[in-house]
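Chain A, query sequence.
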Amino acid sequence: MTQSDIEEEQHDAAITWFVLLQDCEEEAVWLAHRDWLEADPAHVAAFDAVARIWIEVDDLMQDSASSTAEVIDLDARRDERRRWRSLWRPAAAAAAVIAAVGLLQLERLREPAAETFQTDATATRTIALADGSRVVLNRNTVIRVRLSDHARLIELSSGEAAFDVHRDATRPFSVLANGREVRVLGTEFNVLNQAGAFGVTVRRGLVSISAGSNGGPSVRLPAGTALMHRMDAQTDTLTKVKADDAFAWKDGRLIYVDRPISDIARDLGRYGGDTVAVAPELAAMRASAVLTIGDVRSLDRQLELLLPIRIETTARGRRIVPAP
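Chain A, predicted structure.
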């Protein structure tokens, strides 16, 4: 098989995958597609090329009424039509004819400017994105959103956010946080980036998380699993979880099941807008608790009633110490 034959076979496979993924809700199909992409970098390039053609076709269809200067190679057009017709359903065949225009040198649209959304210590915020996705920001959270025809990029500068992503095979959805990339096509997941800690919990679908600065491997998380990388830790921690617990803050609760006291201190700091330290003698303490989100004093008081600790105010913020 010649190199040309191999490239044509990869191109045909990419078209098949692209069609198959349209409106597909079966997780097994998306997992198989992810495996195909990771099997060979050429598969990624082929799939991206097909997706770009589709995007450019959409642009051209919108601009065709005013554009009269384009020159089309009729032979290439007929060849592309035959290939796509052999793989696409009849309903897609007409679009395949126009897709040949993607072989022309079309100018990409200018990337839109990023838009910033943030919350303070008093309330959460729900954002409906233009692509149909929804993002809920926890308190004291900042994100930057950039949506284009080719990609959807969210930078979680600090805080915590829950994402319910509208599936779109042509525009991957990525969240950047703590030097990591969380990449998805359509799923529901929660991301934490606070005080050096990074965490992802998946409630529906599948996400791919890039390697950290420590050089560890990239990770794929299916529904019902979580990744946590705590400050100063050398490796990620992967666990099976009750995913709803990670989203409980959207309903006004914080749920902890056998969690390090440092995790609770980190959350108290975010809700209070300050830093909450843990006394060295409590560093190994783990706790289970359900807290009702309220003002800072209310959270502190609930925790003091549940655990043998006291929360004191210092010049540098608050500090969790053993109860007297």
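The longest strand covers residues 152-164. The radius of gyration is 24 Å.
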